[in-house]
Amino acid sequence: MASPSPSPRRLTRIIRVSRAMAWITLLCALALGAALLGFPLFDPDGLDLLIADAFALPADTVLPPAIRAGLIAIGALPVLVAIAGLLATRALFLGFARGEVFTPRSGRWLKRIGLIVLLSAPLGVAVGAAASALASLPAPEGARQVVVAISSDQIAMTIAGVLVLVLGWTLEEAARLADENRQFV
Q1: Which of 84, 87, 112 is nearest to 171 (CA)?
Q2: For residue 3, what pLDDT band results from cuts at 50, 70 and 90?
Q3: 42-93 pLDDT tens trace
Q4: What is the distance between the alpha carbons of residues 101 and 125, in angstroms, rounded to a whole number?
Q5: So what's the pLDDT on residue 59?
C-alpha cells in the first residue's frame, strides 16, 4: 500500500534521524534492563539505602529479606514499562527509517506508545502506594501506612500520554483516508 510521502529532502532527514533514534532507544532499553538486573549487585551493602531512597523511605530503614525482594519487584514494574515504551518507540523509528511515515502501522505504534505513557502515571501512584504499604509491614499495628502521592510529573505524563494516543489515532485515520482517496483516482 502506497502512502503519501514528505518531500525527498525531509524524508531523507526523517530516515537519518529515525535510524539514529532506533539505535539510541535500543541502547537505552538494554541499559535499563542491565541496570534492573544488576541493581542488587552494584552495592549489596547499601541496597537498603538505595531502596529507601528510591521509595522515599527513612534513610535508616532496615528491610527484612522478603520485604527487600518485594520492593525490588515492585520497583521493577515501572522499569519494565519504560523498556516496553522504548521498544515500541524503536519500532516506530524503524518504520520511519524505512520510509513508513504516513501509514496505519505508524499510527498503531504511536497509539501503543501513548497508551504506555498514559498507563505509566497511575502505575507510578500504585507502585508508590504498594511500596509504602509493604515497607511498613514490619512496623507494629497502628504504625503501618499506605502513602498515595500524585505529582505534577504524573499529571503531565497523563496529558502527554493522551496527546500521543490521539496523535496515533489521527495518523492512523489520515493514512486510511489517504488510501481511500487513492483508490478513487
Answers
A1: 112
A2: low
A3: 776 678 888 888 888 877 777 888 998 899 999 999 999 999 999 999 999 9
A4: 35
A5: 73
- Are 25 and 87 in contact, with CB atoms under 8 Å apart? yes
Residue in the block written with cell 515492585: 74
Q: Give me 97's grid cell.
A: 527509517
Amino acid at 178: A
d(CA 37, CA 154): 26
Contact 25, 86 (CB under 8 A): yes
Residue whose entry in the numeric block shows the C-alpha cell 538505595: 50
CB-based burial, 48-84: b 16+ in 10 Å, e otherwise: beebbeebebeeebebeeebbebbbebbeeeeebbbb
Residues 21-32: pLDDT tens digits?
999 999 999 999
- Backbone dihedral region of 99: left (phi > 0), alpha (psi from -120 to 50 degrees) or beta? left
Instruction: Report the predicted TM-score, pTM, of the whole model to 2 decimal places.
Output: 0.85
